[in-house]
Design brief:
- Pathway: Amino-acid biosynthesis; L-leucine biosynthesis; L-leucine from 3-methyl-2-oxobutanoate: step 2/4.
- The structure is a single chain.
- The protein is an alpha/beta fold.
- It is built from 16 helices and 19 strands.
- The strands form five sheets. It has a five-stranded parallel sheet, with helices on both faces. A five-stranded parallel sheet has the order 17-16-15-18-19. It has a four-stranded parallel sheet with strand order 11-10-9-12.
- Helix 13 packs across helix 15.
- It binds 3-isopropylmalic acid and iron/sulfur cluster (SF4).
């Protein structure tokens, strides 16, 4: 039978299948962070169990870590969270990259960067943005804390069969348009529930032409439109990116791996339950105006009038969003002034993202009254960025150059918006209070973030002279 890429990976991992029951899948890589693992370890303790495959389990600290220093965690709740992870990893023999470690970072930046993430793997983590790893042709998805316990104890996971969807990206990408613009445009088109129940494969020449970083940005936001996972078939770009990374196979094993990885493509004639197409030719720099990632518009446009939505639910949501965001229908998006610009997160905190932001801000200054935080997604991204002088470009421009972590992507650490403050943020969620109580978030790409920092209002690099 002709199968999709996702079905191939799935089938290769079934350890038990019975009619009328979910499949039991083997898990190749289990990533952990401090937020969703404590109860799972407690569960193991209570049942007197150990971790089945500590060698396939790896932890990092990211959500609760400060980004202004590598030692002091002032908030007691965050400190307890981190100390608990350290104790659990020590007790159960799990490798941990703690604050200050050269590999520490946001779990979805750290995994790929270390070469832990490889094509054809099943990868889980108690975190919804585990979909990021799908960019390598891995079947990767977020799981809940009770499932984390199950995987820790057994290295397997019970899963009902998802539906299959293809998203075809066609047309010619306009200059200055990034992967972030594409995924924001897609989510605005299909809505935040558009992918529900599906494992998605992103395909087409536009995807093939993207860098691994761009592909990760797209896979990362799969969950923001309801998809369970978002895969991209591995190709030469994938192999070149992975080669030589610490956990990547070496020598003969590398050659054998690549030979296998080349088979990880959707067969001609394989059937998808749903197929959608996004023509990228008309996509321009995109920003969100509302409080979910599907409430977006081209930066060149206006804040929409809620009355323009036919669907009553969408209309009501738009009304509430404008109220919360302090925006008026018809207002030009380019007139929206921001207080804070955040470059970072597992969506856009990789080296290429920092390069893109740096190239825009180089030789320019952050606008008066605007605070710009640049937060590498991992300590290794930070080191690589420093090796090419990106830190100096940001500091010179008046931005803050921080240590790695989730930072202002979500308010679980000291980097937060104050009530009423407005940000342009390269992260993936603009929910109410996401970046701090009362904070207002506009999701943007790294170049738009940098241009916005310079202008002080939502802006694209083409606005700068
Ligand atoms: C804290 C964690 C469970 C959460 C997630 O699952 O995604 C976080 O990473 C997020 O981005 O909201
Ligand atoms: S960077 Fe943001 S989206 Fe990614 S794992 Fe951290 S909190 Fe979640």
């Amino acid at each position: 039978m002709n199968r999709t890429l996702a079905q191939k990976v799935w089938d290769a991992h079934v350890v038990h299948r019975a009619a009328g029951e979910p499949d039991l899948l083997y898990i190749d890589l289990h990533l952990l962070h401090e937020v969703t693992s404590p109860q799972a370890f407690d569960g193991l303790r209570m049942a007197g169990r150990g971790v089945r495959r500590p060698d396939l389990t790896i932890a990092t600290e990211d959500h609760n870590t400060p980004t202004d220093n590598l030692i002091k965690i002032l908030d007691p709740v965050s400190r307890t969270q981190i100390e608990t992870l350290r104790r659990n990893c020590a007790d159960f023999g799990v490798k941990l990259h703690p604050l200050g470690d050269p590999v520490q970072g946001v779990v979805h930046v750290m995994g790929p960067q270390q070469g832990l993430t490889q094509p054809g793997m099943t990868i889980v983590c108690g975190d919804s943005h585990t979909s990021t790893h799908g960019a390598f042709g891995a079947l990767a998805f977020g799981i809940g804390t009770s499932e984390v316990e199950h995987v820790l104890a057994t290295q397997t996971l019970s899963q009902g069969t998802p539906k299959q969807m293809a998203v075809n990206f066609v047309g010619d990408l306009q200059p200055g348009v990034t992967a972030k613009d594409l995924i924001l445009a897609l989510i605005t088109q299909v809505g935040t529930g558009g992918g529900r129940g599906h494992v998605v494969e992103y395909r087409g020449p536009v995807i093939e032409a993207l860098s691994m970083e761009g592909r990760m940005t797209i896979s990362n936001m799969s969950i923001e439109w309801g998809a369970k996972a978002g895969l991209i078939a591995p190709d030469e770009t994938t192999f070149a990116w992975l080669k030589g990374r610490p956990y990547a196979p070496q020598g003969d094993l590398w050659d054998a791996a690549v030979e296998h990885w080349r088979t990880l493509r959707t067969d001609e004639g394989a059937r998808f339950d749903t197929e959608i197409t996004l023509d990228v030719s008309s996509v321009t720099p995109f920003v969100t105006w509302g409080t979910n990632p599907g409430q977006g518009a081209p930066l060149s446009g206006d804040v929409p009038d809620p009355a323009s939505f036919d669907d009553l639910g969408e209309r009501g949501a738009a009304e509430r969003a404008l109220e919360y965001m302090g925006l008026t229908a018809g207002q030009r998006l380019r007139d929206v002034a921001v207080d804070v610009v955040f470059v970072g997160s597992c969506t856009n905190g990789r080296l290429e993202d920092l390069r893109a932001a740096a190239s825009v801000i180089k030789g320019r200054k952050v606008a008066e009254g605007v605070r710009m935080l640049v937060v590498p997604g991992s300590a290794a991204v930070r080191a690589a960025a420093e090796a090419e002088g990106l830190d100096e470009i940001f500091v010179e421009a008046g931005a803050e150059w921080r240590f790695a972590g989730c930072s202002m992507c979500l308010g679980m650490n000291p980097d937060t918006l104050k009530p009423g403050q407005r940000s342009a943020s390269t992260s993936n969620r603009n929910f109410e209070g996401r970046q701090g109580r009362g904070g207002r978030t506009h999701l943007v790409s790294p170049p738009v973030a940098a241009a916005t920092a310079v202008v002080g209002r939502l802006a694209a690099p083409s606005d700068l002279n």
